[in-house]
Amino acid sequence: MSGTQTARGILRKYLPVVVLVILVAVSSALSKNFMTAQNIFNLLRQNSANVIVSLGMLLVILTGGIDLSVGSVAAFSSVLFATLLDERAGNQMYLPLAFAAVAALSAAFGAAAGYLVAYRKMAPFVVTLASMTAARGVAYMISHAKTIPIANTFVNTFNKGSLMAVPYPVILAFAVFVLFALVLSYTCYGRFVQAIGSNETAVRLSGIRTSLYVMSVYVMSALASTLGGIIESRTGVGDARVCQGMELDAIAACVIGGASLSGGRGTALNTLTGVLILGLIGNIMALMKVAPYPQQVIKGIIIIVAVLLQGRGGKKQ
User: Fold this and answer.
1) By C-alpha distance, which of 216, 196, 197, 214 is closest to 206?
2) Strand pairing class (166-167; 237-238)
3) What one-character DSSP code corresponds to residue 91?
4) Residue 186 Cα distances to 46, 183, 272, angstroms
5) 60, 124 in Cβ contact below 8 A?
6) In the chain, what are the helix, strand and coil shares in percent, each to the nearest 5?
7) Residue-level pLDDT, tens digit, the chain, 317 residues
8) Separation between Cα atoms, residue 249 and residue 315, nearest integer Å
């Protein structure tokens, strides 16, 4: 391979990072308030839940699937978590037990979807669309379409507090990012997940239980959504209306980060970068007092450009 080809390969691999750096430079030039510590930390805090949910989505996409239920599962987790801690209803469950219960029930949504996709060979789009509707419906049933205060000092302090000026949700999102990066790069599980997306038949013929791995990524995605939903309750209430459209942002972040929707390609670093690119666009437009609607148009254009660049780079590498 020539030096030029090597340079092109490296540029293609880290293109999202290059785009992010360029956007940061442009944003700094457009607004003097962009590079302030307060704005940067607000940007990171606002996108902490998206980072975690997008990393869960990445696992699903790596297998060639898709999970449309992440936003609804996050809303379900938010509402159920608040309900289990609601002292007005006489619940006020012990915090670790409440979190474990929410995680287990959210994982059940993921397991059910994963089972239908992996073992019943149903289309991921259809299965997770049904899960999306069901999870959001259950959230409304639990909350009766009302907000539920989260009656726990630790949770509220965590969602609103910081350590040395760094918000706790940002620290958690970074820890989850490191975990996913290590799993995808250095474990058999991560390599098998990526291999399944590249050639599931070959992996299955080598003796790997591919169906079990496919099912597991939907469970992991649901668990990531649980964390995302609890973090998104930074106003101190559980709300069935939160995280609407989060699934689209998560998919967009993965695609902008270079993940292939046909499976087999994608990294945690580039997915994180994709989340930051989307968040940065919204942030700079808000600083410039641009209406929210043009942001959606720009996000759509960026997604199309990202897919076009993937196409020029080849289907899978």
Assistant:
1) 196
2) unpaired
3) -
4) 30, 6, 18
5) yes
6) 75, 5, 25
7) 566 657 666 667 778 888 899 989 999 998 888 899 999 999 999 999 999 999 999 999 999 999 999 999 999 999 999 999 876 655 567 888 999 999 999 999 999 999 999 999 999 999 999 999 999 999 999 999 899 988 778 888 888 888 888 999 999 999 999 999 999 999 999 999 999 999 999 999 999 999 999 999 999 999 999 999 999 877 788 899 999 989 999 999 999 998 988 999 999 999 999 999 999 988 888 888 877 777 778 778 877 877 777 665 544 44
8) 22
CB distance 151 to 259 below 8 Å: no
pTM score, whole prediction: 0.92
Alpha-carbon span 186 to 188, nearest angstrom: 7
Name the amino acid, one letter, at 232. Answer: E
Q: According to the CATH classification, is domain 16-312 in 1.10.3470?
A: yes
Q: What is d(CA 55, CA 74) in angstroms, rounded to the nearest whole number?
A: 14
Length of the chain: 317
**Contact (Cβ atoms closer than 8 angstroms) between residue 261 and residue 67:** no
- Could you tell me the residue ranges of all domains in the chain? 16-312
